[in-house]
Specification:
- This protein has helices spanning 2-17, 20-34, 73-80, 83-86, 98-106, 116-124, 170-181, 205-212, 222-230, 253-258, 260-279, 281-288, 296-306, 318-331, 340-343, 347-359, and strands spanning 59-65, 89-95, 112-113, 129-138, 142-145, 159-162, 191-194, 217-220, 234-238, 243-252.
- The chain is an alpha/beta fold.
- It has three domains: 2-40; 59-138 and 245-359, Periplasmic binding protein-like II (D-Maltodextrin-Binding Protein, domain 2), CATH 3.40.190.10; 142-238, Periplasmic binding protein-like II (D-Maltodextrin-Binding Protein, domain 2).
- α3 (73-80) packs across α11 and α3 (73-80) crosses α12 (281-288).
- The chain is globular.
- The chain starts with a helix and ends in a 5-residue tail after the last helix.
Length: 364
């Protein structure tokens, strides 16, 4: 039908003018007016007759996550909103314990892992890894306690539950530093109890210790905080002023060197996910509730806690890189020799940010 219309227009133009130049003008004008790139050039060509760019082949990727959490919402969004698909990536989430996922990354069984806290020590032991994305350079943890306790100073002689004893545990490390700042001795003034779990949700053992009366307070992530507050406990302290590397992604040097375009496309989708999380609460809630069992109102509250702590586009400043690494060094003497340049490679993320900005894409 389009070809017949084009032919009739051309005949009329020639019949009226008898001049070849008007034929060419009519043809060009019709193509532009109808937006028919295919009618003005060979099949499979772009406007002007140049060959159309071939889209990249679909690449199968695996992303390891240690648990289900708001920390991984940008990746949930990238999957559910089709941002990976736009980049011709088919990304599968693999949920497993942190050390298991990291071993799979080093073995090449997954291409990305959201377990930075284990990835950096592995790097110090010779693993060829780099951190390429950090959702927050601030600790996304809070201290929640019994109603009669209102300050950290009130914890003297009280029992606090953390996943594991020792400074290698982020929960313990954060609370010990805050207690010292409040004038308490973590070793003598407070009784630490090892709960043995750092997972989120209402059935978590940390929350259970409060409910059972085995502990007077707990360090918790956002899901644990919400679950404890729902049981009548209250939050008295935020660790947001403490540098920490949260929601990060690590990949291998081999991936960066041999498949840089795939890494950039992966991060392009991530940037869109981060921006939706920052600017579109309703879509963020819809997607989060597909992965985490929460009441919608509670989920909205949790995102309200986390959103102000987010880095922009998953990129942290050189100062945040240095401070976050120094905090890890305090707990892991084996990484003392690591320098910032050995740990982080944000060049692919910066390329992805520029690509999203240049496209004019908006989160809503």
């Amino acid at each position: 039908m389009v070809k017949r219309a084009l032919g009739r227009a051309v005949k009329r133009a020639i019949g009226r003018s008898g001049a070849r130049r008007y034929f060419l003008l009519a043809l060009v004008a019709l193509c532009l007016g109808l937006g028919l790139a295919g009618a003005c050039g060979p099949a499979g060509s772009a406007p002007g007759g140049t060959p159309a760019a071939k889209p990249p082949e679909i690449v199968q990727l695996r992303l390891h996550v240690p648990s289900r959490s708001t920390s991984y919402l940008p990746w949930y969004l990238a999957i559910e909103q089709g941002y990976f698909q736009e980049q011709n990536l088919a990304v599968e989430l693999i949920q497993s314990p942190g050390t298991t996922g990291l071993a799979a990354l080093i073995a090449g069984e997954v291409q990305f892992s959201a377990n930075v806290s284990a990835g950096i020590p592995a790097l110090a032991q010779g693993a060829g890894l780099k951190v390429i994305f950090i959702q927050s350079g601030k600790a996304n943890y809070w201290f929640t306690t019994r109603p009669e306790i209102n300050t950290l100073q009130d914890l003297k002689g009280k029992r606090v539950v953390v996943p594991n004893l020792g400074m290698s545990d982020a929960y313990t490390r954060l609370l010990a530093a805050a207690l010292r700042k409040a004038g308490l001795d973590p070793l003598n003034d407070v009784i630490f109890i090892a709960g043995g779990s750092s997972g989120g949700g209402g059935s978590d053992i940390l929350v259970g210790a409060l409910v059972a009366g085995a502990a007077d307070g707990m360090v918790g992530n956002v899901l644990q905080r919400l679950a404890a507050e729902a049981q009548g406990f209250h939050t008295i302290h935020s660790f947001a002023d403490s540098p920490d590397l949260q929601g990060g992604v690590v990949t291998t040097d081999n991936m960066l060197q041999t498949r840089p375009d795939v890494v950039r496309r992966f991060l392009t989708a991530a940037v869109k996910g981060v921006r939706v999380m920052a600017e579109d609460p309703e879509t963020s809630l819809d997607v989060l509730l597909r992965y985490v069992e929460l009441d919608r109102g509670e989920a909205a509250k949790g995102l309200g806690y986390v959103r102000p702590l987010m880095s922009k586009d998953g990129l942290i400043t050189p100062t945040e890189q240095r401070d976050g690494l120094e905090k890890l060094k305090e707990a892991n003497p084996q990484i003392e020799s690591l320098e910032v340049g050995q740990v982080f490679d944000f060049e692919p993320l910066q390329d992805a940010i520029r690509a999203v900005d240049a496209s004019g894409w908006q989160p809503r």
